[in-house]
Specification:
single chain; alpha/beta; six-stranded mixed β-sheet; 62% helix
Length: 457
């Protein structure tokens, strides 16, 4: 049982949980259906590089060795590896992305469940933000382990909060299940686990209670670490980046803002996030500070993450949205003016998010399928040959070969959607732009496809 002295202190009391009923139930169902529609639409289109890379790595691991080999590279996520082993590596893209779509949708009622004890507005705003926030739609619709990881993080948070408040054995069991599955979905769950562990430690639950909470997950993590060491786990493989740029991109998109140079706006949002944490219920301030502010710092300082990517901040971003929902609750309790302010802010975030979601639905993560169909076959050169050739081989096996000296095609890979140069120079030859294949969101790449300029007649 949780320390009963904690629940007697007003600062530690969590309001009783309630079931959704009446208008709230219909609103929650509507938001959940909206989340499902957005993720189904966003799951269409070509697999992007990281998804294809997962398949290529698994093709080298026959049969049952795939599950053991899932710890050999950080691009392999064990739960997603299990799913791909069940449905086959040649399954349609939407089938490969199905677990992410279902988990991304499930995050909406789970966010409501975690926050509704702190107020009706908090629960509904959390559900709305989780339904439309572009990073959650993006990573909730691609064949990776991020969406299942987020589901485990929400369940672990809610179950630990419930256990600390009530001591329910069922909450303890649910927490242990979530913390065992979380690292198997994606290793960034370890940061969530650390944050929740520090929160429980700060609540002075006692050594015996800490052991009951965290021993199963600790045993799993140690086992995974030993297997990873034996397998010589490889981490990263993309171009080195910096943590602030990656955090800025995902933080701004999380509230519906797309910025070409996002560093300073992101720093302002981080300052606002710190204020939001201070305005949260006293019971939740420590854990929100850990999960939204300390976790990004841990990612930034970690020597294991040499290639920081926006998706590594998915869990902190989700809990940042939770902090915003709690601020909305606080504003709503200040009367009609506060409620109006909260509503305006939420509507602004939802409107900006939907605009970015629709861009993702329209453009996808790039269109390697259409690019391969346009090119047909031939010799290819690229500024990013490893990624481009892997995707072309996946789309059209055996039809393209790499040839930097005399290519029939040149593919320029870009992270932005700005206008491409109409003519470029490669190996003393002029290439002219044939077509641009843009992308949207935090995953994927834009391809500019060129072919040699015909000689003058």
């Amino acid at each position: 049982m949780a320390d009963s002295s904690l629940t007697r202190r007003p600062v530690g009391v969590r309001p009783p949980a309630r079931r959704a009923a009446g208008p709230d139930l219909w609103l929650l169902l509507g938001l959940t259906m909206a989340a499902l529609v957005l993720r189904v639409l966003a799951a269409r289109g070509s697999l992007w590089f990281d998804e294809v890379w997962t398949l290529v790595l698994l093709e080298r691991l026959p049969g049952a060795s795939r599950l053991l080999g899932a710890v050999a590279h950080d691009n392999l996520h064990p739960v997603q590896v299990l799913w791909l082993s069940l449905v086959g590596l040649d399954a349609a893209a939407w089938v490969q992305r199905l677990p992410a779509v279902l988990c991304g949708t499930a995050a909406v009622p789970l966010a409501w469940r975690a926050l509704h004890p702190y107020g009706r507005v908090a629960g509904l705003v959390a559900a709305a933000l989780f339904a439309v926030s572009p990073p959650l739609v993006q990573y909730g619709s691609e064949a990776r382990g991020y969406a299942p990881m987020l589901v485990c993080a929400l369940i672990a948070f809610e179950r630990l909060d419930t256990w600390l408040a009530t001591g329910q054995p069922a909450a303890l069991r649910g927490f242990r299940v979530a913390t065992v599955l979380g690292p198997l979905c994606h290793l960034t769950f370890l940061l969530v686990l650390a944050g929740l562990g520090l929160w429980a430690l700060g609540r002075r639950v006692g050594l015996a209670a800490l052991l009951r909470l965290f021993v199963p997950a600790t045993i799993l993590v140690v086992g995974l670490g030993l297997l990873a060491a034996m397998a010589g786990m490889k981490v990263g493989g993309s171009e080195p980046g910096d943590w602030l740029t990656a955090l800025a991109a995902v933080l701004l998109q999380a509230v519906g803002i797309a910025a070409a140079a996002p560093r300073w706006p992101a720093l302002a949002l981080l300052a606002g996030l710190a204020v939001a944490v201070l305005l949260a219920p006293p019971r939740l301030r420590p854990v929100l500070a850990l999960l939204t502010l300390a976790l990004p710092a841990a990612v930034a300082l970690s020597p294991l993450i040499a290639y920081p990517q926006p998706r590594y901040y998915l869990a902190p971003i989700a809990f940042a949205l939770a902090a915003l929902a709690l601020v909305a609750e606080r504003l709503a309790r200040r009367g009609m003016l506060g409620l109006a302010c909260a509503l305006l802010v939420v509507l602004a975030i939802v409107g900006g998010s939907l605009r970015l979601d629709l861009a993702l639905i329209a453009l996808g993560r790039g269109d390697a399928t259409a690019a391969a169909a346009l090119m047909g076959a031939g010799r290819v050169a690229s500024d990013r040959p490893f990624r481009v050739m892997m995707q072309l081989e996946h789309e059209a096996p055996g039809r393209f070969t790499r040839d930097d000296a005399r290519p029939d095609w040149f593919v320029e890979e870009r992270a932005d959607n700005g206008p491409a140069e109409p003519r470029i120079l490669h190996d003393d030859r002029i290439f002219v732009l044939v077509r641009l294949f843009p992308h949207a969101g935090l995953s994927g790449f834009t391809w500019a496809v060129y072919r040699p300029e015909p000689p003058p007649s």
